[in-house]
Design a protein that fits this description.
13 helices; alpha/beta; 16 strands; 2 domains
Length: 442
């Protein structure tokens, strides 16, 4: 046993310059873990609650009160606890908070403590974090989903769809996957310049941002960009889309402002289906809004024999919401964002629950992220199979990519996870990951 001896908490900054919570945990052995947690801008209503100060400092987004609570209330409870008991620590944090959504202490503060404790315990074991979660098996490196063109809340709504990503489905190694993604981004930048667009503007997650006439144009530009890079769309590099449809809700429909169109859920899904006919798309995230149950049922019925259908706002990294989705067989993949739920234990539970049910799992960063690389270790330790942390630019993004590149370099038995639902040639249908109903006790 190695007990917690001290806790330090402070107000830090994320990659957008917005305050976030930093925490350091020191153990009796001298081991230490530090975490600075991320924050999202395109957030669903079912996420755990970030605690902000309000007032004039940082436009009301300061976190001094959350930091004070960590020092005054959390530290006295955790000092003396066994740092190796992650579930016990996370349970204690939830008990102390006393709310379902971590509103009192703040999910941002709770996650900082949860991750810092895990990192301290890993150092105490003299093991990397991924190995603590995966002690016996060789490292499975996640297939990267790399942001190339951004819109929506990540790029001032220059286009409506939030992200268009490159997925190097044909790569044989993680390093090759990152090289191909970097080439695809460069080729796409060349294509944008050839069409008269300025590529100096970089979006929140490092993707290219350009005011395009339509969302379909973004797909055309990305496809041509992949070809410009000397790679084959579909066979080597495929496309993923994050629609973030909750942000598009307008009345009873979905507003594509750049195109001056409002579509029903049925029409929007039909449009996505037409995109699948014309482009090498292998994954669509949040095609309809978080609470559009009928829309999700239709999207699942219509699209999942052709594409990976990822729930982000839909599931909000909530074990209960995911279990409900599995029972109803909604979507076939889940995005896992630890700050949506607040503790590592719950994020890990969501990952395991999804995998047991045959859902694909994608570990994800946030638009306001930090220089920490622990998310990469989670993706490997939890054998998630996929990771989505942004583009190949901006150091808060490359910190995660570089961590995975190092893990590949120092582990000769490391392998790259194969894509679970890949279009190998243009127009060929993707295979849907099998869905199994959860056990009653789940």
């Amino acid at each position: 046993m190695d007990v917690i001896k001290r806790m330090l908490a402070w107000e830090a900054l994320d990659s957008r310059g917005t305050p976030t919570v930093g925490c350091s945990i020191g153990l009796e052995s001298g081991a230490e873990g530090q975490a600075i947690v991320p924050s999202g801008v395109s957030t669903g209503s079912h996420e755990a609650h970030e605690r902000r100060d309000g007032g004039e400092r940082y436009w009301g987004k300061g976190v001094r009160d959350a930091v004070k609570t960590l020092k005054a209330e959390v530290a006295p409870v955790l000092v003396g606890c066994d740092a190796h008991d992650q579930q016990g620590i996370d349970n204690a944090l939830r008990t102390l908070d006393r709310t379902d959504d971590l509103r009192r202490v703040g999910a941002n503060a709770v996650l900082a403590v949860s991750v810092a404790c895990a990192l301290a315990a890993a150092e105490s074991h003299r093991q990397p974090l991924w190995r603590v979660f995966n002690p016996a098996r060789s490292p499975l490196l996640p297939m990267p989903m790399v942001n190339i063109i951004s819109g929506g809340a990540h790029a001032g709504a220059l286009i409506d769809i939030q992200d268009f990503l490159a997925v190097p489905v044909g790569a044989a190694s993680f390093s090759q996957a990152m090289e191909w993604a970097s080439r695809a981004r460069a080729g796409t930048a060349d294509e944008l310049r050839a069409r008269g667009h300025d590529t100096a503007l970089v979006a929140d997650e490092g993707g290219l941002a350009a005011q395009l006439p339509s969302n379909r144009t973004a797909l055309e530009v990305l496809t041509t960009g992949i070809e410009r890079s000397g790679l084959a769309p579909g066979d080597q590099v495929a496309i993923a889309i994050d629609v973030a449809a909750t942000q598009l809700v307008s009345g009873s429909g979905y507003r594509l402002e750049r195109e001056r169109r409002t579509l029903s859920a049925e029409a929007l899904i039909e449009e996505f289906s037409s995109w699948l006919d014309d482009f090498a798309i292998v994954s669509i995230e949040d095609p309809v809004a978080e609470d559009d149950h009928d829309g999700w049922e239709l999207a699942t019925h219509t699209l999942t024999d052709r594409v990976q259908l990822v729930g982000d706002d839909l599931f909000a990294t909530s074990p209960d919401r995911l279990r409900a989705g599995i029972r109803e067989q909604i979507a076939n993949a889940v995005l896992v964002k630890p700050n949506q739920v607040g503790t590592l234990s719950d994020a890990w539970l969501v990952t395991e629950t999804a995998q047991q049910a045959g859902y694909a799992t994608v570990i994800s960063a946030r638009s306001g992220d930090t220089e920490d690389a622990w998310l990469a270790d989670l993706a490997v330790g939890w054998r998630a199979g996929q990771i989505k942390v942004g583009s190949t630019t901006r150091s808060e993004r490359t910190a995660k990519w570089n961590r995975l590149l190092r893990l590949e370099a120092e582990n000769a038995d490391a392998t790259l996870a194969p894509w679970p639902a890949v279009t190998t040639t243009h127009g060929q249908r993707a295979q849907r990951p099998g869905v199994r109903l959860p056990d009653p006790e789940m």
